[in-house]
Design goal:
Length: 270
Protein backbone atom coordinates (compact mmCIF):
# COMPACT_ATOMS: atom_id res chain seq x y z
CA UNK A 1 0.00 0.00 0.00
CA UNK A 2 1.31 3.45 -0.91
CA UNK A 3 2.21 5.46 2.22
CA UNK A 4 -0.14 8.36 2.94
CA UNK A 5 1.21 11.80 3.94
CA UNK A 6 0.41 10.92 7.55
CA UNK A 7 2.43 7.67 7.28
CA UNK A 8 5.31 9.58 5.72
CA UNK A 9 5.36 12.01 8.62
CA UNK A 10 5.28 9.18 11.14
CA UNK A 11 8.20 7.34 9.56
CA UNK A 12 10.23 10.54 9.34
CA UNK A 13 9.68 11.17 13.04
CA UNK A 14 10.64 7.61 14.04
CA UNK A 15 13.17 7.10 16.88
CA UNK A 16 16.86 7.13 16.08
CA UNK A 17 17.94 3.97 14.28
CA UNK A 18 14.45 3.14 13.00
CA UNK A 19 13.89 2.88 9.23
CA UNK A 20 12.77 6.11 7.63
CA UNK A 21 11.15 6.84 4.32
CA UNK A 22 13.38 8.91 2.06
CA UNK A 23 11.64 11.72 0.23
CA UNK A 24 12.10 12.42 -3.45
CA UNK A 25 11.20 15.17 -5.88
CA UNK A 26 9.94 14.35 -9.37
CA UNK A 27 10.08 17.11 -11.97
CA UNK A 28 7.15 15.93 -14.05
CA UNK A 29 6.46 17.20 -17.55
CA UNK A 30 2.66 17.20 -17.88
CA UNK A 31 2.66 17.97 -21.60
CA UNK A 32 0.70 20.73 -23.37
CA UNK A 33 -2.64 20.03 -21.66
CA UNK A 34 -4.30 16.98 -23.18
CA UNK A 35 -4.05 14.20 -20.55
CA UNK A 36 -3.79 11.63 -23.36
CA UNK A 37 -0.37 13.13 -24.17
CA UNK A 38 1.05 12.32 -20.73
CA UNK A 39 3.74 9.67 -20.76
CA UNK A 40 2.96 6.42 -18.97
CA UNK A 41 5.72 7.19 -16.47
CA UNK A 42 4.39 10.68 -15.75
CA UNK A 43 0.89 9.31 -15.09
CA UNK A 44 2.29 6.64 -12.75
CA UNK A 45 4.36 9.15 -10.77
CA UNK A 46 1.43 11.53 -10.46
CA UNK A 47 -0.84 8.79 -9.10
CA UNK A 48 1.76 7.83 -6.49
CA UNK A 49 2.95 11.26 -5.32
CA UNK A 50 1.96 12.53 -1.87
CA UNK A 51 2.32 16.21 -2.79
CA UNK A 52 1.84 18.06 -6.08
CA UNK A 53 3.31 21.51 -6.70
CA UNK A 54 1.38 22.49 -9.81
CA UNK A 55 1.86 25.14 -12.47
CA UNK A 56 -1.12 27.07 -13.84
CA UNK A 57 -0.99 25.48 -17.28
CA UNK A 58 -1.61 21.95 -16.01
CA UNK A 59 -5.16 21.03 -17.02
CA UNK A 60 -8.02 20.00 -14.74
CA UNK A 61 -8.18 16.55 -16.35
CA UNK A 62 -4.61 15.91 -15.24
CA UNK A 63 -5.47 16.98 -11.69
CA UNK A 64 -7.98 14.12 -11.68
CA UNK A 65 -5.08 11.64 -11.56
CA UNK A 66 -4.22 12.64 -8.00
CA UNK A 67 -4.92 9.94 -5.43
CA UNK A 68 -7.30 10.70 -2.54
CA UNK A 69 -5.45 12.56 0.18
CA UNK A 70 -2.83 14.04 -2.14
CA UNK A 71 -1.84 17.54 -1.13
CA UNK A 72 -2.08 19.84 -4.17
CA UNK A 73 -0.35 23.21 -3.94
CA UNK A 74 -0.83 25.64 -6.81
CA UNK A 75 2.40 27.47 -7.61
CA UNK A 76 1.36 29.24 -10.78
CA UNK A 77 4.04 30.68 -13.06
CA UNK A 78 2.70 32.51 -16.11
CA UNK A 79 4.45 34.97 -18.37
CA UNK A 80 3.02 38.45 -17.92
CA UNK A 81 1.07 37.47 -14.80
CA UNK A 82 1.81 37.50 -11.12
CA UNK A 83 3.81 34.36 -10.36
CA UNK A 84 4.81 32.38 -7.31
CA UNK A 85 8.46 33.28 -6.52
CA UNK A 86 10.85 30.58 -7.67
CA UNK A 87 12.70 30.62 -4.35
CA UNK A 88 9.46 29.80 -2.53
CA UNK A 89 8.82 26.84 -4.85
CA UNK A 90 12.33 25.52 -4.25
CA UNK A 91 11.90 25.72 -0.49
CA UNK A 92 8.55 23.94 -0.68
CA UNK A 93 10.09 21.07 -2.64
CA UNK A 94 12.88 20.73 -0.11
CA UNK A 95 10.53 20.93 2.89
CA UNK A 96 8.20 18.18 1.70
CA UNK A 97 11.04 15.92 0.53
CA UNK A 98 12.74 16.22 3.92
CA UNK A 99 9.46 15.11 5.52
CA UNK A 100 9.80 11.87 3.57
CA UNK A 101 7.19 12.76 0.96
CA UNK A 102 7.12 11.89 -2.72
CA UNK A 103 6.83 15.32 -4.33
CA UNK A 104 5.68 15.92 -7.91
CA UNK A 105 6.69 19.31 -9.28
CA UNK A 106 4.12 19.30 -12.08
CA UNK A 107 5.00 21.48 -15.05
CA UNK A 108 3.30 22.16 -18.34
CA UNK A 109 5.24 20.80 -21.30
CA UNK A 110 8.70 19.40 -20.56
CA UNK A 111 10.65 20.40 -17.43
CA UNK A 112 13.85 20.94 -19.40
CA UNK A 113 12.41 23.11 -22.18
CA UNK A 114 11.84 26.61 -20.80
CA UNK A 115 10.63 25.03 -17.55
CA UNK A 116 13.53 25.79 -15.15
CA UNK A 117 13.96 22.07 -14.62
CA UNK A 118 17.73 22.26 -14.86
CA UNK A 119 17.92 25.00 -12.24
CA UNK A 120 15.68 23.04 -9.88
CA UNK A 121 17.58 19.79 -10.35
CA UNK A 122 20.89 21.52 -9.58
CA UNK A 123 19.45 23.28 -6.52
CA UNK A 124 18.05 20.05 -5.08
CA UNK A 125 21.25 18.09 -5.78
CA UNK A 126 23.34 20.73 -4.00
CA UNK A 127 21.23 20.08 -0.88
CA UNK A 128 21.40 16.31 -1.06
CA UNK A 129 17.74 15.91 -2.05
CA UNK A 130 16.95 13.02 -4.38
CA UNK A 131 15.33 14.27 -7.59
CA UNK A 132 14.53 12.99 -11.07
CA UNK A 133 13.02 14.52 -14.19
CA UNK A 134 10.21 12.92 -16.18
CA UNK A 135 10.02 14.03 -19.81
CA UNK A 136 6.90 15.65 -21.22
CA UNK A 137 5.76 16.74 -24.66
CA UNK A 138 6.49 20.42 -25.07
CA UNK A 139 3.88 22.62 -26.76
CA UNK A 140 6.25 23.57 -29.56
CA UNK A 141 6.46 19.97 -30.71
CA UNK A 142 2.83 19.11 -29.97
CA UNK A 143 1.79 22.00 -32.22
CA UNK A 144 3.01 20.08 -35.26
CA UNK A 145 0.59 17.19 -34.83
CA UNK A 146 -2.21 19.39 -33.47
CA UNK A 147 -2.16 21.65 -36.54
CA UNK A 148 -1.17 19.10 -39.17
CA UNK A 149 2.09 21.00 -39.57
CA UNK A 150 5.27 18.98 -40.20
CA UNK A 151 8.00 20.88 -38.37
CA UNK A 152 10.58 19.19 -40.60
CA UNK A 153 9.94 18.38 -44.25
CA UNK A 154 12.22 17.44 -47.10
CA UNK A 155 12.86 20.42 -49.32
CA UNK A 156 11.32 22.90 -46.88
CA UNK A 157 12.82 22.47 -43.42
CA UNK A 158 15.97 20.59 -42.48
CA UNK A 159 15.30 20.85 -38.74
CA UNK A 160 13.53 22.74 -35.99
CA UNK A 161 14.74 25.23 -33.37
CA UNK A 162 12.90 25.91 -30.11
CA UNK A 163 13.68 29.44 -28.91
CA UNK A 164 12.35 32.01 -26.47
CA UNK A 165 11.67 35.62 -27.34
CA UNK A 166 11.74 36.68 -23.69
CA UNK A 167 14.62 36.29 -21.26
CA UNK A 168 15.43 37.64 -17.81
CA UNK A 169 18.21 39.85 -19.20
CA UNK A 170 16.27 40.91 -22.33
CA UNK A 171 18.79 39.28 -24.67
CA UNK A 172 17.65 37.71 -27.93
CA UNK A 173 18.69 34.64 -29.92
CA UNK A 174 20.94 35.29 -32.90
CA UNK A 175 18.10 35.80 -35.37
CA UNK A 176 20.52 36.21 -38.30
CA UNK A 177 21.98 32.76 -37.76
CA UNK A 178 18.50 31.28 -37.49
CA UNK A 179 17.35 33.08 -40.64
CA UNK A 180 20.18 31.45 -42.58
CA UNK A 181 19.76 28.02 -40.99
CA UNK A 182 16.83 26.66 -42.97
CA UNK A 183 15.18 25.54 -39.73
CA UNK A 184 11.55 25.87 -38.72
CA UNK A 185 11.46 28.31 -35.81
CA UNK A 186 9.18 27.63 -32.86
CA UNK A 187 9.07 30.66 -30.63
CA UNK A 188 7.89 30.57 -27.01
CA UNK A 189 6.94 33.66 -25.01
CA UNK A 190 6.65 35.81 -28.10
CA UNK A 191 3.10 37.04 -27.65
CA UNK A 192 3.92 39.90 -25.28
CA UNK A 193 5.46 41.99 -28.06
CA UNK A 194 4.78 40.22 -31.33
CA UNK A 195 5.34 43.42 -33.29
CA UNK A 196 8.91 43.76 -32.06
CA UNK A 197 9.54 40.08 -32.71
CA UNK A 198 8.29 40.37 -36.30
CA UNK A 199 10.41 43.45 -36.93
CA UNK A 200 13.56 41.87 -35.50
CA UNK A 201 13.10 38.72 -37.58
CA UNK A 202 12.67 40.69 -40.80
CA UNK A 203 15.70 42.83 -40.03
CA UNK A 204 17.66 39.61 -39.47
CA UNK A 205 16.80 38.23 -42.90
CA UNK A 206 13.43 36.47 -42.64
CA UNK A 207 11.28 37.41 -45.64
CA UNK A 208 8.19 39.49 -44.97
CA UNK A 209 5.99 36.79 -46.53
CA UNK A 210 7.43 33.93 -44.44
CA UNK A 211 4.47 31.72 -43.35
CA UNK A 212 3.58 31.90 -39.67
CA UNK A 213 1.24 29.89 -37.48
CA UNK A 214 0.22 31.07 -34.01
CA UNK A 215 -1.26 28.35 -31.80
CA UNK A 216 -3.01 29.09 -28.51
CA UNK A 217 -3.48 26.37 -25.86
CA UNK A 218 -2.15 23.56 -28.04
CA UNK A 219 -4.02 20.23 -27.59
CA UNK A 220 -6.60 21.71 -25.19
CA UNK A 221 -10.35 21.97 -25.90
CA UNK A 222 -9.97 25.74 -26.28
CA UNK A 223 -7.16 25.41 -28.83
CA UNK A 224 -7.23 28.08 -31.54
CA UNK A 225 -4.73 29.02 -34.21
CA UNK A 226 -4.22 31.33 -37.13
CA UNK A 227 -2.05 31.11 -40.20
CA UNK A 228 -0.61 34.35 -41.50
CA UNK A 229 2.70 35.81 -42.71
CA UNK A 230 5.48 37.48 -40.78
CA UNK A 231 4.77 41.08 -41.77
CA UNK A 232 1.11 40.75 -40.72
CA UNK A 233 1.64 38.51 -37.70
CA UNK A 234 1.25 41.11 -34.94
CA UNK A 235 -1.89 42.70 -36.41
CA UNK A 236 -3.48 39.33 -37.09
CA UNK A 237 -2.82 38.14 -33.53
CA UNK A 238 -4.72 41.17 -32.24
CA UNK A 239 -7.52 40.72 -34.79
CA UNK A 240 -7.96 37.06 -33.84
CA UNK A 241 -7.89 37.84 -30.10
CA UNK A 242 -5.13 35.33 -29.38
CA UNK A 243 -3.07 35.56 -26.19
CA UNK A 244 -0.62 33.57 -24.10
CA UNK A 245 -0.06 30.71 -23.66
CA UNK A 246 0.78 30.30 -27.32
CA UNK A 247 3.63 29.26 -29.58
CA UNK A 248 4.58 30.95 -32.84
CA UNK A 249 5.81 28.69 -35.66
CA UNK A 250 7.75 30.43 -38.43
CA UNK A 251 9.02 29.00 -41.69
CA UNK A 252 8.06 27.57 -45.10
CA UNK A 253 6.80 24.31 -43.55
CA UNK A 254 3.85 26.25 -42.11
CA UNK A 255 2.47 26.41 -45.67
CA UNK A 256 1.75 22.67 -45.42
CA UNK A 257 -0.99 23.06 -42.80
CA UNK A 258 -4.12 21.32 -44.07
CA UNK A 259 -7.08 23.58 -43.27
CA UNK A 260 -9.61 20.86 -44.03
CA UNK A 261 -8.06 18.57 -41.41
CA UNK A 262 -8.68 21.02 -38.54
CA UNK A 263 -12.05 22.72 -39.23
CA UNK A 264 -13.02 23.33 -35.60
CA UNK A 265 -9.76 24.91 -34.52
CA UNK A 266 -8.51 26.50 -37.71
CA UNK A 267 -8.73 30.14 -38.72
CA UNK A 268 -6.99 31.39 -41.87
CA UNK A 269 -6.07 35.05 -41.90
CA UNK A 270 -6.06 36.31 -45.47
Amino acid sequence: MRPTPETARATTDSPAGAPTRRGKVWLVGAGPGDPDLLTVKAARILRQADVWLVDDLVGADIHALAAPGTRIVKVGKRGGCRSTPQDFILRLMARYARQGRSVARVKGGDPFIFGRGGEELQWLAARGIDAEAVAGITAGLAAGAALGLPLTHRGLSRGVALVTAHTMDDTRPDWRVLAASGLTLVCYMGMRDAGTLARELQEAGFAADTPVAVAHRVSCPEQRHIVTRLDRMAADIVQAGLSSPAVIVIGPAVSLIDAAAQPAAFAMVA
